[in-house]
């Protein structure tokens, strides 16, 4: 039996504080641009089935109960009590929370209290640039304040993250932009931006990535599917990874699915690169063990990190944790049964992926 008594969720978001009806709950289950197919619901996905398997027992219901019954019980308990039961039932002992999403989401402290767990902040670079721009009157003050803000954030955050930076191939050029390029890009953005608009100029995004690298804090990069119809080009991503080798900053590749093999390959080649395996498991549900085995084929075991990637719903923290435990036990357990691994080695590797690697990368106690 492979056990993972401690889980560090190395990338997630807060949960919604508001009550949800069927439609709004479903919208949080799957990130789609429209309604489900006629006659179906968004519960008809691997994630939806996993929610119905693992979450009802935590609220006093039988597994696989109908969605309407589950949501009625959720409303009966109230959003706070239901969230508390779900988060504490996940078995997650530490949350690393990206605070860069809009909406009425709990912050790290509130999430940690609800889940009876540690909680730490991940600072999103694009949002930090927005906040600095809101209070900077000139290009010079913006650039000076931006550098100062990244330095200040590095004193309390466990990591930085970027979503948009890796979606623009030129932003991943293997060298920092020159001062003149940065001033020009910052001037164009400040002149055209409206409140709430994040930086989109590849030069400015590249500047953000490189000042984060200079901070020494781990930098998390969203390396899989981006917006609908887009993806991250592996060529510039590989060039950026190669250029940051030896600088003292670890890179953690998030949300690699369905390009998780490429992320695992980079983690195997470059000493400062780590691969996240969690969000892929949530999306693949009953097939999670297959995806995890593919990551384990390529990445060293000390370079793989668990996360739920959850946002909005505490159910997604539960699903992420349970699918990870089940997939890990199935894959490693099979190798032990076949005699390929010893039980002690399997348990040691399980501990590394579940929490040990994250503790080392992020400097957690």
Walk me through what this model shows:
The chain contains 15 helices and 8 strands. With 365 residues, it is an alpha/beta fold. The protein has one domain: TIM Barrel (Alpha-Beta Barrel), CATH 3.20.20. An 8-stranded parallel sheet has the order 1-2-3-4-5-6-7-8, with helices on both faces. The protein is globular. This is Amidohydrolase. Keywords: Hydrolase. Belongs to the peptidase S8 family.
Brief summary of the model shown:
It is built from 15 helices and 8 strands.
Tags for this model:
alpha/beta; TIM Barrel; globular; 365 residues
* Helix content range: 40-55%
Task: Using the CA coordinates, give the radius of gyration.
Answer: 21 Å
Number of domains: 1
Order of helices and strands: EHHHHEHEHHEHHEHEHEHHEHH
CATH homologous superfamily - what is it? Answer: Metal-dependent hydrolases
Tally of alpha and pi helices: 15
Report the mean per-residue pLDDT as an integer: 91
Domain Amidohydrolase-related: 138-364
Protein name: Amidohydrolase
GO molecular function, one term: hydrolase activity
Keywords: Hydrolase
